[in-house]
Design goal:
Elements lengths: L1 H21 L6 H8 L3 H7 L3 H26 L3 H13 L9 H7 L6 H27 L9 H22 L2 H14 L4
């Protein structure tokens, strides 16, 4: 069982890296099998079809985001610092000129199963809910400054980071992500 779990995790790790680079439609089980040196039958054993794999990818991604957001909350009570940590999490895939799984799956939404699409919406909602709470807390505590509703700010923040990932990937220039991320954070510190 432990070996199966390790194989399943290796398949998910490999599939995630591929999706973050070329999208959900840009690979087959044979691509994964070749990268990790197993037969496609082994992949089908863990994930009978690509829809199952997509659902497992997004479920794991959401679970990892929730764990990361709890960690951010536990590491600091400063809401600007929490947003910086969130931004650094979104910067990670940019180092390899990729985007986060959420961005790539959003662009391939039509190819996902209904369950995977729902999982993607749940992942994005988890991001937005966390951002909204941090923004509200930061505004109330005098750490963050913005006009209007925190829900709108959360959407703008997330959309800015996702768009920054796409620009960095398109231009193969991480500094484009950094400029946008820093600009979004700076805008929240101006009275």
């Amino acid at each position: 069982m432990n070996k199966n779990k390790n194989t399943a995790e290796l398949i998910l790790d490999t599939a995630q890296a591929i999706v973050q680079d070329v999208g959900f439609n840009g690979f087959s089980y044979s691509h994964i099998a070749e990268k990790i040196g197993i037969r496609t039958a082994s992949i089908h054993y863990h994930f009978p079809n690509k829809e199952d794999l997509g659902e497992a990818l997004i479920a794991r991604y959401r679970k990892n985001f929730i764990a990361a957001s709890v960690q951010f909350d536990n590491e600091t009570s400063n809401n600007l610092e929490r947003l910086r940590k969130f931004t650094l999490m979104y910067a990670e895939p940019v180092q390899d000129y990729c985007t986060c799984l959420g961005v790539m799956l959003s662009t391939d939404l039509g190819a996902l199963s209904g369950k995977a699409g729902e999982g993607l919406a749940e992942f994005l909602t988890a991001n937005l809910d966390w951002l909204q709470r941090v923004l509200e807390d930061g505004q109330r505590e005098g750490q963050l400054y913005f006009e209007g509703d925190a829900s709108v700010q959360a959407h703008l923040f997330l959309a800015s980071l996702q768009g920054a990932q796409l620009l960095a990937k398109s231009f193969r220039d991480r500094s484009r992500f950094d400029r946008i991320a820093n600009g979004v954070l700076s805008a929240l510190t101006v009275k």
